[in-house]
């Protein structure tokens, strides 16, 4: 959710700075097709889980979808914001791998954002429906500081929890979107005094 919020703010900021959607349409990242593949895999992994005893497939798919994004970041590292996105993705991947392929969130964070109704138990694991989240107590969470510990509680219209990695991805995406939409006029060199 924080990424969607950052992208919305970035889009508005870029438009206010004289940016255009046409510039965004003309902006291309190399290997961006990998992002579409990663998204497709993640959608199937998140929404296709029915608790049929194949939890390992879901775990592997979530990790694989995250891994597919790293080559895009590396290939396009020359663009502003991509280093932050890469660092955020790496932090999220580390905490997910350390916790069985899912992004941990504590029961207390779930309660603060009032999403307790989204907890489902699949194959003996407490999961957040419609997400890659797993509900774990803090003391059972490996790399807890990198998990979804930051909370935007109600009355914010869409209460959510997010990780440090999510925040870095959001900031990097904000910077990248500014670069994609706003053309910075080239400065001609100042004439030298004779």
* Mean pLDDT across all amino acids: 89
* Beta-strand residue percentage: 5-15%
Number of helices: 8
Question: How many DSSP E strands?
Answer: 6
What's the SSE pattern?
Answer: HHHHHHEHEEEEEH
C-alpha Rg (nearest Å): 19 Å
User: Outline, from the CA principal axes?
Assistant: globular
Q: How many domains comprise the coordinates?
A: 1
Unreliable spans are none
Distance between the termini: 57 Å
Order of strands across the widest beta sheet? Answer: 1-4
Class per helix and strand makeup = mainly alpha
Helix content: 40-55%
Q: How would a crystallographer describe the biggest sheet?
A: 2 strands, parallel
Please explain how this structure is put together:
This protein is mainly alpha-helical and 194 residues long. The chain has one domain (2-181). The chain contains eight helices and six strands. It has helices spanning 2-16, 21-26, 33-47, 55-67, 69-75, 82-98, 107-112, 164-181, and strands at 103-105, 119-122, 125-128, 133-135, 150-152, 160-162. The strands form three sheets. The protein has a two-stranded parallel ribbon. A two-stranded antiparallel sheet has the order 2-3. A two-stranded antiparallel ribbon has the order 5-6. Helix 3 runs antiparallel to helix 4 (55-67) and helix 6 (82-98) runs antiparallel to helix 8 (164-181). The protein is globular, with a radius of gyration of 19 Å. The termini are far apart. The mean pLDDT is 89.
């Amino acid at each position: 959710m924080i990424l969607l919020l950052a992208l919305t703010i970035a889009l508005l900021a870029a438009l206010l700075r004289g940016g255009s959607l046409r510039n965004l349409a003309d902006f291309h990242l190399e290997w961006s097709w990998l992002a579409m593949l990663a998204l497709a895999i993640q959608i199937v992994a998140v929404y296709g889980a029915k608790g049929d005893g194949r939890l390992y497939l879901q775990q592997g798919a979530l990790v694989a979808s995250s891994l597919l994004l790293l080559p895009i970041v590396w290939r396009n590292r020359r663009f502003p914001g991509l280093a932050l996105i890469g660092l955020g993705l790496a932090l999220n991947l580390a905490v997910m791998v350390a916790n069985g392929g899912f992004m941990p969130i504590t029961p207390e964070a779930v309660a603060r954002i009032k999403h307790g109704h989204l907890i489902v138990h699949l194959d003996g694991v407490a999961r957040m429906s419609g997400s890659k989240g797993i509900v774990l107590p803090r003391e059972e969470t490996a790399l807890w500081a990198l998990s979804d510990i930051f909370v935007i509680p109600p009355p914010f219209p869409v209460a959510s929890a997010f990780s440090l990695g999510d925040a870095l991805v959001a900031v990097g995406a904000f910077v990248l979107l500014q670069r994609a939409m706003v053309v910075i006029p080239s400065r001609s060199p100042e004439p030298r005094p004779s």
